[in-house]
Design brief:
30% strand; 3 helices; binds inosinic acid; binds magnesium ion; 6-stranded mixed sheet; Rossmann fold; 185 residues; 20% helix; alpha/beta
Length: 185
């Protein structure tokens, strides 16, 4: 495995800035759902670090659940909108206040399909909270209620986001220099 310093273009969002913004999002969500039921749904695996930090900044009681989806199609860096559920929720979301917690919205295809699937289960409310938003890359409209940071069109890694499943553990968001990244076999 390549050391990430070899292909690091720049650190886009450092740990302190990330945590400060997550605290703001947690405070806003706590305010918006005060006195109400709240369920956070995390889409595995990229959103896991964000979910666990966000939870600790939400001061009202809430529950969590997970689902895993994959977009299948050619090209590991592009999603297609053909989304398959690999691992479904345990929770019945009927009549619940749901926030879908995502790491990043790129084309929006993945999230659009997930939102459509969840809507068929008739939650009371359904909102999206994404840490990162690559707005320039959007192909389909998604209602984003909570957003950490709008970022430029660069492939990023760290803080849950992977390059070929690696580097998720880094506590900051960094951009890849594609010319210097070597995929391992
Ligand atoms: P979308 O369907 O195009 O919006 O793709 C969303 C998914 O693609 C995210 O949940 C990530 O798993 C992945 N993704 C998109 N951009 C990046 C990136 O810059 N780094 C790592 N993963 C990304
Ligand atoms: Mg993801």
């Amino acid at each position: 495995m390549q050391d990430y310093h070899e292909f690091l273009q720049e650190i886009l969002i450092d740990e302190h800035t990330l945590q400060k913004r997550i605290a703001e999002l947690g405070a806003k969500i706590s305010q918006d759902y005060a006195g109400q039921d709240l369920l956070l749904i995390c889409i595995l695996r990229g959103g896991v670090l964000f979910l666990t930090d966000l939870m600790r900044r939400i001061t009202i009681d809430h529950t969590i659940d997970f689902m895993a989806v994959s977009s299948y199609g050619v090209g590991a860096r592009e999603s297609t909108g053909h989304v398959r559920i690999n691992f479904d929720l345990k929770t019945d979301i009927y009549n619940r206040n749901v926030i879908l917690v995502e790491d990043i919205i790129d084309s929006g295809y993945t999230l659009k399909t997930v939102l459509e699937i969840l809507e068929t289960r008739h939650p009371k409310t359904l909102r999206v909270c994404t840490l990162l938003d690559k707005t320039e890359r959007r192909k389909v409209q998604i209602p984003v209620h909570y957003c950490g940071f709008a970022i430029p069109d660069k492939f990023v890694f760290g803080y849950g986001l992977d390059i070929d499943e690696h580097y998720r553990q880094l506590p900051f968001i960094a951009a890849v220099d594609p010319a210097r990244y070597q995929p391992s076999e």
